[in-house]
Amino acid sequence: MEANVVMANMTWRPLWQMAFGTVPVEEFLSPMGGSLLYLTITILSGFILRILSKVILHPVISEYVCDFLATMEMCAYFYENNFIFSRYGPVWLFVAIVIECVIANRTYFGASENPVKALYSLCMKEIGPVKAVLKIAVQTLAGLASYRFARFVWSLDMVPDHRQRYYETSCVTDLNVTLLFGMGIELAATLTDTWLGMQTVMKNSFIDELIKVGNGALMIVIGISTTGMYFNPAMATGHLLGCKGATNQDHLIVYWVGPFVGCIIALLFDRVLHIDVTKSKPVAADKKKK
Asked: How far apart are CA 162 and CA 147, in angstroms?
């Protein structure tokens, strides 16, 4: 009963009537329109709240708040990405992820959306262990909060898929392979994403960014049917923790141990193979002689 009252009071239809003075003809928006509005609300909410936090809050507090908001925003994207994948297929999922990540890179203002980055910063001695743990804890809470945010947007009742998800009371895990294979997939994806992120493969910074973002999007498209291909522990926790088909221990091994081990291996592999095309060959040769 309570859910029905909330849905009735918050749908897009009264908002449309207040804005345009007419009752909408259709019960729902088009699927494309629903996805675009969901993503626009998500992007603008995170962007505005991060700006406010930087203006109002102390820098130390603002850093954690911005991490929370960035993580919640990124996790919220992927609730809608599941609809995009089911409606339009892998090509449009790829396009959506690339666009989302390019926008995020320009609106996060240095905030982190993945606990793996806290581990990376700790290993690189950029932050201490206490700060790393705090960041991971904040991002994990943000992953869990992302479901509440998504549900709030679903309550606008823009498309039938949103209505169905709003009323769902249970979920099923995305882990469709064995435990060790699943951990290996998340490990390999994180290893690849982290290592490539440490390289400079093109002199043009935008093309370099597109290659890295495209690599992540391609891995998600290829591996979505195996583990969901999250390589983000906070996102996996927000989407899957407590879902049927996997125990909490399974979840921890696949979606936390796998990515963290993958990050550490990437750091070690970077010592063996590091690419930076911006460095001139003569300088590299001189270094080898020394």
From this structure: 12
176: CB partners within 8 A, 6+ apart:
225, 226, 227
Euclidean distance between CA atoms 23 and 27, whole angstroms: 10
Q: Supply φ then ψ for residue 172, to 5 degrees.
A: -120, 140
Phi, psi of 200 (to 5 degrees): -120, 100
Integer Cα distance of 72 and 63 in angstroms: 14
Token pair belonging to 58: 């102390």
Query: What's the number of CA atoms in the CB half-sphere (13 Å) around residue 23?
Result: 2
> What SS3 state is found at 78?
helix
Which tokens hold the place of 226?
């195996």
How is residue 62 written in tokens?
Answer: 């603002």
Q: Residues with Cβ < 8 Å from 61, sequence gap 6 or more? A: 53
> CA 290 to CA 281: how far, in whole Å?
14
DSSP letter string over 181-213?
HHHHHHHHHHHHHHHHHT-B--SSHHHHHHHHH
Domains of the chain, by residue range, sit at 1-169, 171-278
DSSP 159: S
Whole-number percent of the chain with pLDDT over 70? 93
Q: What is the per-residue pLDDT across 205-219, written as a single tens digit (0 to 9) for each?
A: 999 999 999 999 999
Q: What is the pLDDT of residues 14-69, one digit of tens each?
A: 888 888 888 888 889 999 999 999 999 999 999 999 999 999 999 999 999 999 99
In 3D space, the residue among 230, 262, 260, 261 whose CA is nearest the CA of residue 246 turns out to be 230
| Cβ(113)–Cβ(74) below 8 Å | yes
pLDDT in tens, 159-177: 999 999 999 989 999 999 9
- pTM across the whole model: 0.91
d(CA 110, CA 108): 5
Q: In angstroms, rounded to a whole number, what is the distance separating the alpha carbons of residues 171 and 287?
A: 55
